[in-house]
Amino acid sequence: MQTVLGAGGPIADELVKELHRNYTKDIRLVSRKPSKVDDTDELVAADLTDAEATSRAVAGSRIAYLTVGLPLDSELWERQFPTIMRNVIDACAEHGTKLVFFDNTYMYPGTSTPQTESTPFAPGGRKGRVRGELATMLIEAVRAGRVQGLIGRAPEFYGPGATKSYTNSLVFDRIKAGKRPFVPVDAHAVRSLIWTPDASRALALLGNTPDAYGQTWHLPIDPNRQSYAQLIEIAAEVTGREIGYTVLPMLAFRLGRHFVKPLDEMYELVGRYRDDNIFDSSKFAARFPDFQVTTYRQGVQRILAE
Fold it and tell me: Which domain of life is it from (predicted)?
């Protein structure tokens, strides 16, 4: 049995598809209101902030993947995420279940310094501090021998379907709708973006690779990083039309955060768009040289063809 805790999002759904394709049909999906990806999926409704419910959800699982997402709300993150992580670690320890944690990069410094698995945590705000706390909780539990676990860490998403990210909503969704895309802060800073199905395929691979445990892994990206200006140029080539863009300066976010809550929640992260973002996934590439990464051109073509 392999269990996905936090089923229903684009990462979780693609993860389930990959597990079905290549690893097992014995899959349990856990969320408050889970729904099947495949007919053979087992559904368990559970609130992971409840320790007993979490234990029941994990029981009988060989591997559990923690892919829970919460709305971008700092107070909610501080209140719920540490509880969820604590409950999941305790449940995995109780049932002898391996734990694969899908993580992000909010705890890293928002600078142009390359980010590797050994980059020290230097969060720039509340959400980054929460993410650093979660990763540290799991690392300490692994070092103490309580659980076998690993972290699969991803930079900002872009992807097909219902992928939720600033890149999708501000750039590609607007291009698909025939609207002028918005670029946060700087159109020429280089971005590291992960194609969401690649993240899910890599997470499944790591979870089913015994020697991957006890480590943090940067999930694979196309190392030929592009700026937003370059991505929009690719989109223009794919669609055969001219596409301009509007840069949203820091001042717009600084003013808007006082009136629009989503902009206030985003503000902690906006500074990361000012400089190049160099997320280094060479460790994964060296260990899994046959893994085929989706190129940025392939990704853009796929999004705009939907």
Answer: Bacteria
What's the pLDDT score for residue 164?
84
Confidence band of 251 (pLDDT split at 50, 70, 90): confident
Alpha helices in the chain (DSSP H): 10-22, 51-58, 74-95, 126-143, 166, 173-176, 196-207, 228-239, 250-256, 261-270, 282-287, 296-305
pLDDT at 258 exceeding the cut of 80? no
Two structure tokens written together for 215: 């480590």
Domain ranges of the chain: 2-158+195-221
> Which amino acid does the sequence have at 222?
D
Position of tokens 């899910």? Answer: 200
Cβ proximity of 102 and 203 under 8 Å: yes
Tokens of 220: 């694979």
Q: Per-residue b/e over 28-52, b at no fewer than 16 CB within 10 Å?
A: bbbbeebeebeeebeebebebbeee
Taking phi over 0 as left and psi of -120 to 50 as alpha, with beta for the rest, 80 belongs to alpha
Cβ–Cβ < 8 Å for 298, 224: no
- Predicted structure pTM score: 0.95
